[in-house]
Amino acid sequence: MINVATATKPIEDAMIYVRKRGTIVAVGLPKNPNFTANSYVLVQRGITLKGSFIGNRKDMDEVIQFFARGLIDVPIEIHGLSELPKLLKRLQKNEVQGRLVVDTSK
Fold it and tell me: For residue 47, what is the domain's CATH number?
């Protein structure tokens, strides 16, 4: 996960949403550079947290354009709320590639 936000909350939230054994690269520079990291979450989920001062806004714009042109593929599955128990089991078994979206209207 590449975090380009200029606030601390998205960096803290990234530790919750990144996949097990995932890596978070903080590129954005918030006004307040201090944030809270839950060491239990980092260790238990095997998360790597990195910072990078390489690159600039133009570089980030290029990365976003790669995504917009479809050069970066993130698999997305959309499921109904009724399938939630099955989805949670898949997540616990680490059987999910990409992102699961729960549509509450289904």
Answer: 3.40.50.720
